[in-house]
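Possible race condition, two jobs.
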Amino acid sequence: MDMEGFVRDKIANGKEENLLEEILSKRILEYKDISYESSNSMAQTVIEEVKNTLKLENYGDESLKEIIKIPESDVAMGEMGVGSRGAGDFFVHRKIAEVVASAKTSSLINPTAQDDGGVVKSPIKDSDIYITTAVDGIHSRLSEYPFLGGFHVARASLRDVCVMGADPVAIISDLHLADDGDVGKLFDFTAGVAAVSELIDVPIVAGSTLRVGGDMVLGDRLVSAVGSIGVSKHPPTARKRAEDGDVILLTEGSGGGTITTTAIYNGFFDVIWETMDINFIKASNGLIKDDLIKDIHAMTDVTNGGLRGDAHEISSTTNLGLEVYQDEIYSMISPKVLDMLETLNIDPLGVSIDSLMLIAPEDVSKRIIKSAESVGVKIKEIGKVDNSGISKMIKSNGEEEELKPLFREAAYTKIKKLVGETTPENFEIMKKKVEKSAIESIAKKNKVVKYIKKQ
């Protein structure tokens, strides 16, 4: 429970202070094993602190008031589908990328490319080393399963480095646990990250551990992120390098955080073990060892929004088309995972299956297959790149289906099915509001930078 947010909302809606104090005191007692007097004192203090912050509204410094004022879009995260890996989420990420790009700093690959990781060239003179970075957050539904959350978010971050053609060299971890969370969660999460670190011999070198919201948030919610750093002697295998006539290859995917969540919350517990591997990283490292990275045009992990989302993003970035075959794709999904998805009526192309998808010239594809198979990873050709500008799948019955991301990724838990996947009728209006908010954020940033430079 966010006490500060709760109090702000109630004050904004005219709740009398004495009633608010009583309500908050009772809420605190639901989480804290303390006396009523202590909970009442805590409630009074929270209300006092929030009221003090509200005095800023009448403060004379207009520039300061402008800095602290949020450029609200009047669109909520859930409404827009942010984090749900669909059309709404992709749109918001493009706006975030525009805010990043407004800094006008230089990099080879940055968020505007909507790629898996970012890349800069080493600033050391005459160095041909490319540095790749990536960061991923823990799956929100794995807060109660810290080891699995740590294991899968570490894999996800490392995958994002690998698909840019880089060799992972370091892992960093940022861990936030709410005030009432058991400290053991910190160790359990870190052990999950450390398991991946040990399996692939890449060290954890730094991190941060804090409470979610400090004293203001009650409960035991765990949120975290793991970042990875990699290096390469070759330019990144970014999506924009795909070419007409390239072959599309796919390794077998058994899922990660999303599939683990699906298994836990739908009772398919044996599927959890299917996700506990490092095949993706083994395949990537094999390609580096066999000196094939320089010959691969693009690599990506089938995660955000599933293959539908990845195919659409590649087409959008390159203006090329992708033609893939349903039967070949399904054959590259772990049988137990595929059986679970079909049993639950979840679109296998709309969720993260954590396969490695490679796009390369046809004459290179056989060497890639040989490399992957030499480290025990299954791989198969699933389609080709063309100049149609459209991503499409050839179904088992021969019909064609254009691959487009849904508003949200395929619903893989019961609560997600209730929320739904359909695009809201006011989506275009929401997009305009969100875009206006991003533009205002850039304008604020520009003013602050200009002010500081003048000092």
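Job #2 (started ~2 s after job #1):
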Amino acid sequence: MIKAAFVGFGEVNTPYEILVRKCTEAEANLKKEGMDLVSVFPVTDDYEEKDIKKAVDSLKGKDFDVLIVCIAGWIPTHAVVKVTEHFRHIPMVLWGLCGWMESGRLVTTADQAGTTAIRKTFYDLGYTFKYVYDIIGLPSKVKTVYNYALAASAAKKLRHARSGMAGYRDMNLYGTQVDGPSLKREIGPEIETFEMLEIQQRYEKITDDEKQAVIDKCMSKWNFVRPANPESLKMAAGYYLAVKAICDERGYDAISLKDVDGMKKLLGFPPAPIFMLLSDEEGLCTIPENDSLGNITQLMVKYLTGQCAFYLEFYEFFTDRVLAGVPDYVPAEITDGGVTVMPAAFGELSEGILNVSKVKQGEVTMCRLTYDDGMYYMHMVKGEGITPRKWEEAGWTQPAPQLPGLEILLDDVETFAQNVMCQHYIISYGDNTEVIKNLCDILGIEVI
């Protein structure tokens, strides 16, 4: 639940009952969205500044993610600033209510006189805020206010988020690396690395009974195209429990493992089922190949949408679409028809448990956080995901599996391709561009 402070302002000479009525209605609409509010209203510009003192005293010491400055009528700027200056470090919404029609005439309390006097002042003071105004005869902008509050809540979570990284820079890739100090400074998360040796040491202490319990409880939900090697199931369960223990102890919200040059090369076990279990059973954001900023993008999207924020990588570009898929796994949440797996081997790699689930269709938002010369950027595009044609990646044991994926229809493939930032992009269902942009605005990230 989003925690917000709600302060309603209005000029001392405006009828008190009007200010109370307008603020009460705005407060009720926010509560309908599921927001947890600490409310103070009406706050006027009374000469002795009793209302201002009451507002500040009521909010000090309270925990909230965003300050909603609700302007219910004309209010001198100083009365607002004397409250907001105490909370300048918190994102704000400057929300102007509006007048109404009565007996064929428009009645106004000059709400937008108040907001237009304040907007530039907030900007000059360096506040992080969004300006929203209602219009007579149209629905109130409650959803817009909520979406910004949601982004403020996500930004607060990111400030203390932790991601675990077993190993670093799988396959010596460049685009998956991260600059730790700038990430902490600008966005907030901590990426903590640990050695794969720790996973192996923990794995060796897990009993067969513990492994079997995971197989019976969790893997029994999967649809097997053909039976998997029992030893592969036990290894998947054991390594899952080993990584889970590390995540639980250290409070990780996201995890990545060294995949090709780690789990596969050194331990002889493709980690797809480990990621599946961590995502589906623990609710963790998961991505392979030590993709640091991929993990952070996942956290951003998950905090905003509540979705698992899964990754896809690009295989082919077409004139009107991209083919995006994965060579290993997808979370159960985004499957159409449940999780389907099969034993399979790729090239010289040992046989593993491959996810071949069908991915749900629908409107999608693709995005990727990237870093360039001291600045963070978010590349984002909206598309329509449809079931792909029959396709395969060369190298799989024949008959080759149909890998999970989507053909994503885009308005402008060429522009997207010329700005693409990595092979991995984070996918969420629906049009989430507004909330992602709000979060980027709060964090000072430019959207491409």
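The first helix runs from residue 16 to 32.
Logs attached separately.
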